[in-house]
Amino acid sequence: MDRMTEISKYLSKHLRHRPERIGVTLSPGGWVDVDELLEAAARHGFPITRAELDEAVAGNDKRRFAIEDGRIRALQGHSVPVDLDLPAVAPPPLLYHGTTERFLPAIRREGLRPMGRHAVHLSPDRETARRVGARRGRSVVLTVDAAGMAAAGHLFQVSANGVWLTAAVPPEYLR
């Protein structure tokens, strides 16, 4: 694994799921001071330079992180409580979700649920959803009737990196 991938995985783990493990506290919006993060990472045996951090954030193919005003946060995917302060927006007619065949029976029964995250993640195009699903095996892409969900009162948000978020997707909106 290359260094930028290692840094990205480290950031994901500690900015989305386990900040307490390295002794940082996220603000209600998920932010932490960059210097505090770098000091904590060094204390816990994973030193990162500011240049490496900037490169990992800027070069991340999924644009998972943002740095603003000396602070950093993950853009979505948290399992710890955060309020990303994203407005509700009208979704495109169709969105997509990548998964694998082994999850299809449960999805057909229960729809898409956030599991350990705050929201279900949806992709704006089939190819992105296919890549997401392929991380866990042979990919299956589900089509979400986002327009139908919105008409029924379901809320959608979109993160800065284009990932669509919603509380859940009932099975009747999937094909």
TrEMBL record:
EC number assigned by the record: 2.7.1.-
Signal peptide: none
Domain of life: Bacteria
Coiled coil regions, renumbered to chain: none
Family: Belongs to the KptA/TPT1 family.
PANTHER family, sorted: PUTATIVE PHOSPHOTRANSFERASE, TRNA 2'-PHOSPHOTRANSFERASE 1
Protein name per Swiss-Prot or TrEMBL: Probable RNA 2'-phosphotransferase
Source organism of this protein record: Actinomadura macrotermitis
